Amino acid sequence: PDVVFTQDICEVCNIDTVCTETAVMKLSKQPTLVPLSPNNLQDVFECAITIARALGKEEVALNYLAGLQKKTDHILDQLRANRAPLKRIMLMEWIEPIYNCGHWIPFQIAAAGGVDMLSNPGGDSIVTQWDKILKYNPEVLVIAPCGFDLKRSMEEMELLTSKPDWTDLEAVKNNQVYIADFDMFTQPSVGTLVEGIEALACMFHPEIFKADENIAKKFINHSQSVKSFKSV
Fold it and tell me: What is the pTM of this model?
């Protein structure tokens, strides 16, 4: 390869820059290494430009990003036009132990009309105690374990539903618990993260936003997932 892109966000999900540097030393031709380590949503947009610049396609990237920006601007415009209330959210990146969300995900939540006061914007996700979640009492709960698709997440949900006072959560009482594909949140591709914002907007404010066919496949209400899982 002429160019190799690396990351240092999570050494569990993908190999890091140091490992990549060691590996490419064995190649007869040394490629250009381009590290990408975004911490927030704006960083992810800028990483897309960095990638395009390294490939000599900066103008293409700018046009692509402009289209994505229009999508997020449309969501914001609709939230303002409808005077949508700010929803109290929690998004879990892992179920056992429970991890809150970090890095760019809190910014996705904000762009969709919510706020996650248990999150760690721009930083790593961390273990969050159950009693803290009960006290926070989210209006909407989004379960998106890193690396899990919808089916795998459904299989793990009993770890949450069996916890003490699960049914006391406002999100549970009001049927506002959702399971979502991880790739809309924990994989920092600007296109998939914007899809995540669109999906979150549909979860937080279904009276305003309706998911298109593509987005609708990537999240499901927990009550629906229980029915579909039992029917399999």
Answer: 0.88
